[in-house]
Hints:
Layout: E1 2-6, H1 17-29, E2 34-40, E3 55-64, E4 67-78, E5 81-87, H2 100-125, E6 131-135, H3 140-150, E7 154-158, E8 165-167, H4 168-173, E9 185-186, E10 189-191, H5 192-199, E11 202-205, H6 208-213, E12 226-228, H7 250-260, E13 267-272, H8 282-294, H9 300-303, E14 307-312, H10 317-329, E15 334-337, H11 343-350, E16 355-358, H12 368-374, E17 378-382, H13 385-390, E18 404-406, H14 411-427, H15 429-446, H16 449-462
Parallel strand pairs: 1-2, 1-6, 2-5, 6-7, 7-11, 11-12, 13-14, 13-16, 14-15, 16-17, 17-18
Antiparallel strand pairs: 3-4, 4-5, 8-10, 9-10
Helix pairs in contact: 1-16, 2-3, 3-5, 8-10, 8-14, 12-15, 14-15
Amino acid sequence: MLVGLATFEYLPVRVGGLAEAVTALGEALSKEDEVYVFMPSHGLTKTVPPELDLKKYADFRITVGDRIYPISVFQAWRHGVRIFLFSNEVMDHPEVYHPRKIFIQKLVHFTKALPGLINLLLKKEERKPGVMHINDWHCVFAGALVKKYFRIPFIYTIHRICRERMSVQELNEVNLGELVDNRYLEGEMFNIEVFGAHQCDYLTTVSHSYLDEEWPSFFSSFQGKVTYVWNGTDARFWDPALLKSAALPREERRKKALADNGLADGYFFFNVGRLDAAQKGIDVLLDAFDQVMRGYAEGAEKVRDKMRLVLLGSGDPLLEAEARDLEKRYPENVKAILKYLGREATREFYGAADFCLIPSNFEPFGLVQLEAMCMGCIPIGTRVGGINDTVHSVDDHPEKATGLLVPRRDAAALARAMVKMALMLHQEPQRIDLMRRNGRIHVIENFNWDRAAARYRMVYQNMGTLKLPFVSYAEPY
């Protein structure tokens, strides 16, 4: 089968977890199927990274409003996947999603360009994808047009519901009025995700818990063609054997990593990702750590002097300021690194830290907990979405525990959890060691990309005929 993956992120273009997920899925699928990736260039054709040997494939034109725009298509092969990048004055903008005006223009140009390239593939190579896999709402319109004009069925994967809309006037102005359907109108606004969910042949999301959480408000409307496919992670990359100090005991790696960041040895808590309150709950994290340091959590007086927190990431300027303030108040306990240092640096932190804090308010799937477990860093997360699906909490599964789960938006509960795990590290190191071993085995066996690819392949091959059953958390698929 020839599988087309339409996306706005694919490595080396990375904004968040979407890039990791689609890249890993494409490479896993390519072991049995041909895989083509379709994406705006985001400037890659201007500053070509060394891992991409780009060659021009074709030139054509699209009409947007009353203007004609040239499109150049470049192609490259990466790890068995054929990548097509669309390049012009709009799609070469280096920022993927910002500013919003440019992003919407990119969406429109990509929507027009993808059918143009499918037409050229038919003319030049006499072939087309057997299925188009649309990743998130940015690519929904492109999938709908490809289905309409080339009869290519499409699967729509919602990595996160965004409830995005465009006005009917906007769609008419860019010659996409043919997509407007009164069923998806909310006043003068057109609901893109509802449109995509109706138009697609199969609808998926990335975890059982997220499907359940959003069932009443969204997914229940599409019963009969909706299921979930868990993401995976690449345990070949997230491997302690690849650490710079792999030969050292974990305690020595921890001591060194903390010293490199100006902190003495202690109980090492780590957080990586976007500093965001709405989804990631970073405000809850900062509050929880402050509660521990003030002695508000039971038992905090036994551990607070040795509590260490390293934050790695950037985002909301207000949260960045709050992180800096926490660092100033507790300079011997907190280090805020307000930037993204790359996957290799993140791997080094995972390989040294005792615990990874993941206080999300909602998380469709999340990759951090899997990456952390692969590296022996025990996740302390919330009972939401993919975190709930992938982490065995020590309170629920003492023998096969891989982490600890707490209620969302509950700083006091998170503070208690941090104290509990710090005390366990001090008093019951053998239990901590068991959780570390459990975590890596659990991820490798249950959340690998070959398994996800096999599940998606079932969807592709039976789209529109076989309705896949819901698979409960207790029943591995």
